[in-house]
Amino acid sequence: MDGIASRRNKAAELGADLALEPGPACEVLRDTADVVFETAGSSAATAAAFAFAQPGGRVVQVGWPEKNGVELDVARFLEKELNYVAVNRYANAFPAAIQWLADGRVRGDVLITHRFPFDRAAEAFQFALDHRAEAIKVMVLH
């Protein structure tokens, strides 16, 4: 799910089964996923993640929501017996990420859309913020 059409198009191009805009169309996903990853850092996305997990499923919180509190239907959460897992550190993820980029399981050539030298790091962050429709992953190189 993504609110930006160009990102949904890129997901479809890379093989996603579904690339949906957040909203009513996403109802087809309700109660279907074994595991839901929330990586957007959106309180609304976090709240929705619980609806998409099937009973006995798992919701993994990777993105930090913009608000500290997130709406949660506790009765539905308990009824579905969901597991809620937090990921805050990525230290052990780098070897796998490097391997997947190296062997092509992750297409860095498509996902890394913009590169900035280290001395322009502030500009890179601003660019990513201002150009969400065209920037998938902005990289700062040293």
- Integer tally of domains: 2
Percent range of helical residues? 25-40%
Kindly identify the CATH topology of the largest domain.
Rossmann fold
Mean pLDDT: 90
Flag low-confidence runs. Answer: none
Report the count of strand segments.
5
Query: CATH homologous superfamily name of the largest domain?
Result: NAD(P)-binding Rossmann-like Domain
Query: Structural class of the helix and strand makeup?
Result: alpha/beta
Structure notes:
The protein is an alpha/beta fold. It folds into two domains: 82 residues, Rossmann fold (3-Layer(aba) Sandwich), CATH 3.40.50.720; 51 residues, no CATH class. It contains six helices and five strands. It has a three-stranded parallel β-sheet with strand order 1-2-3, with helices on one face. A two-stranded parallel sheet has the order 4-5. Helix 6 links the parallel strand 4 and strand 5. The longest helix has 10 residues. It is globular, with a radius of gyration of 17 Å. The protein starts with a helix and ends with a strand. The model has no long low-confidence stretch (mean pLDDT 90).
Give the key terms:
globular; 142 residues; two-stranded parallel sheet; three-stranded parallel β-sheet; single chain; Rossmann fold; alpha/beta; 2 domains
Structure at a glance:
The protein is of the alpha/beta class. It has six helices and five strands. The chain has two domains: 82 residues, NAD(P)-binding Rossmann-like Domain (Rossmann fold), CATH 3.40.50.720; 51 residues, no CATH class.
